[in-house]
Amino acid sequence: MEPDQKPAVVHTLKELLVASLRRFTLFWKQTSFQDNPWRRKFFSTVLAAILICFLLMLVDVLQVHTGGAIILFFVGVTASIEFLTRRHYRKTFLLLRRLDDLVNVAESSGPEESSALAKDANREIKCDPRGKTAVLLVNGFNGPGLHTLFSVIRLFGSSFTNFVFLQIGVLDAKTSKDPTAVSRKKSEVEIELDRYVNYMRRHGYYATGYASCGTNVADEIVSVAPKVFERFPNAIFFGGQLVFPNAQFLSGFFHNHTIFTVQKKFCSQGIPVVILPIRVC
Fold first, then answer.
1. What CA dihedral angle connects 190, 208, 231 and 177, to 10 degrees?
2. How far is 143 from 99, CA to CA, in rounded Å?
3. Domain map of the chain by residue range?
4. Alpha-carbon distance 83 to 71, whole Å?
5. What is the pLDDT along the chain (281 residues), one digit of tens a residue?
6. According to CATH, what is the number of the domain 130-279?
7. How far, in Å, CA of 5 to CA of 117, rounded?
8. Which of 16, 129, 131, 260 is deepest in the core (most CB within 10 A)?
9. Which residues fall within 8 angstroms of residue 243, CB to CB, at 6 or more apart?
10. Beta strands across the sheet bearing 133-138
């Protein structure tokens, strides 16, 4: 092989290796949660990755004096980071699934009555705007959100007469410019909020929800807050923060800390924010 041809060959092999890694990641994501025929895809992906790695190592060894070993080192580091990232999110998903058991508990609790009777009962619950109000920042009717709600009730008892649920639908730069996509996303958020509202009203509390959409969750929460305080002046914001067992330094890079950003923005405005830990184990 001519010396001037080696960089082009190495670059091509690296592109093939990256493509194989991406395909393997996509395959793993699909087959972990869906029952798909995957054996043929799996073995073809593994075989392609092995062959490409072998060829890459062979070419890099042949040009070791021209920096091939350094290139191989960085390729290996990149692949290792991708593997560790995938493994971390896989473990996180399994841990969060345990919290989702709270959804079944919430849906099975409360008085057993038809939906029509439940709506009539909800209308009888009066709102006291001057009463103490708990504003919960949620992200869907799920385990973390219910854990935060139950923690507020457990810690503060019957101190709050009103419960407000605030959820922001996350949009990317493209969908934020599409009115249809924004409307669809907001409808999905409102459906999740209605589940919280119905749950609390079944237990005798007044509850309502505020839905919004945006590309920046913290900024959207700050923009919606004045509407909440206009109706409920004695409101206190609550948010949950996941706490993982044996948390490592790099865990902060894998998960956002939106609640801390919100707390910082609200503190400058004199708005109280309480962060409740959500321990997953």
1. -10
2. 4
3. 3-99, 130-279
4. 19
5. 445 555 565 566 566 666 666 665 555 555 444 444 455 555 556 666 666 666 666 665 655 555 556 666 666 777 777 777 777 777 777 766 777 777 877 777 655 544 544 454 445 688 888 999 999 999 989 888 998 999 999 999 889 999 999 999 988 888 888 889 899 999 999 999 999 999 998 888 999 999 999 989 999 999 999 999 999 999 999 999 887 776 555 555 666 678 889 999 998 888 999 999 887 76
6. 3.40.50.620
7. 77
8. 16
9. 277, 278, 279, 280
10. 206-214, 162-170, 133-138, 235-243, 273-279
Q: Give me the half-sphere count of Cα atoms (radius 13 Å) on the Cβ side of residue 185.
A: 19
Output the six-digit token pair for 46. 């593994």
pTM of this prediction exceeds 0.70: no
Given the structure tokens 């042949």, which residue do they identify?
Answer: 62
Note the Cα 28 to chain centre separation in Å: 19
For residue 192 the two structure tokens come to 């999740």
Secondary structure (3-state) at 55: helix
Phi, psi of 35 (to 5 degrees): -95, 85
Write the CA distances from 170 to 139, 167, 219, 247, integer angstroms. 10, 9, 11, 26
- Rounded CA-CA distance 245/241 in Å is 13
Q: What is the DSSP letter of 20?
A: H
Q: Which amino acid is at 245?
A: P
Cα–Cα distance for residue pair 82/149, rounded to 1 Å: 35
Q: Are 136 and 238 in contact (CB under 8 A)?
A: yes
* Distances 99 to 156, 257, 270 between C-alpha atoms, Å: 21, 19, 32
Alpha helices in the chain (DSSP H): 6-33, 39-62, 68-99, 101-108, 115-123, 143-156, 179-202, 217-231, 251-254, 258-267
